[in-house]
């Protein structure tokens, strides 16, 4: 997890500067993660002045879409495999799927919380895979 700092004052200024929606950039950045990707999409579309808030909104969109895709792919995979192997083995695969979803869900919760807190503190934290995707494709 890398934090991109143009300078200590530049990052703070961007995070605390006014936005077209009203609240400071750090507040909008944190709000973007609340109901990711929905709030990220709203802030991304409505905010046109503050680059800090737009970055976190874009990263929120990518994070929310990737999280949803992971869950859908895992569910489809385990459902198909469980149907193909039979009752007893299918039941065991279902249990393993449940446990893996709990672990993945907890990891995603920690990542979400980290990104939300970093945005609120005014840090432009680019998460390893999703940050560059958001910067290159949405900004």
Automatic annotation (TrEMBL):
Superkingdom of origin organism: Archaea
Signal peptide per UniProt: none
Subcellular location field: Membrane
Assigned GO CC terms: membrane
Transmembrane segments: 27-46, 58-85, 91-117
Membrane topology qualifier: Multi-pass membrane protein
Keywords linked to the UniProt accession: Membrane, Transmembrane, Transmembrane helix
Keyword Transferase in annotation: no
Full protein name: DUF4870 domain-containing protein
Organism expressing this protein natively: Natrinema ejinorense
High-level lineage: Archaea, Methanobacteriati, Methanobacteriota, Stenosarchaea group, Halobacteria
